[in-house]
Amino acid sequence: MTGLLERASLCxxxxxxxxxxxxxxxxxxxxxxxAKDPTPSANLIPSPxxxxxxxxxxxxxxRAAWRSVGDRIFFDTDSSIINPEARAITERQVAFxxxxxxxxxxxEGHCDERGTREYNLxxxxxxxxxxxxxxxxxxxxxxxxxxxxxxxxxxxxIGHDAAAWAQNRSAVSVxx
Length: 176
Fold this sequence. Notes:
The chain is α+β, with helices and mostly antiparallel strands and about 180 residues long. Helix 5 links the parallel strand 2 and strand 3.
């Protein structure tokens, strides 16, 4: 039995040998020939396209600046209407986004723990979309924004009182 397995493995290797040789030869080049050819062989293989976002997105300074702007707005109970205080925060967020045109954002809609899961998912979606619509109205391209609802599934504040509920009724804008 062992002999059959060794033979089968050897046969597979022999079948792959021409392919392996081709791969090895394709990777080789003659330094004399490449000196004559102004187009190096590396240009024949397309390089991966650069990331659409600059490395600044991962920079802690950008994220810290974003936090100083304010990454969330708050809503009244059972509401997706952006009040004047929330509007001022949204305007600051949009100003930041205009200064960093290559950054994209996800706007997350959140709710407090009261109400059914389905109701809160729908309300969270209305909140995220209301904030997204405000961003677009203030000049941010819709393609840079994604809206998602977490309903009551991802609370910011843990608690069963009015203070915790107020913190959880929000739209949070996250740098992607």
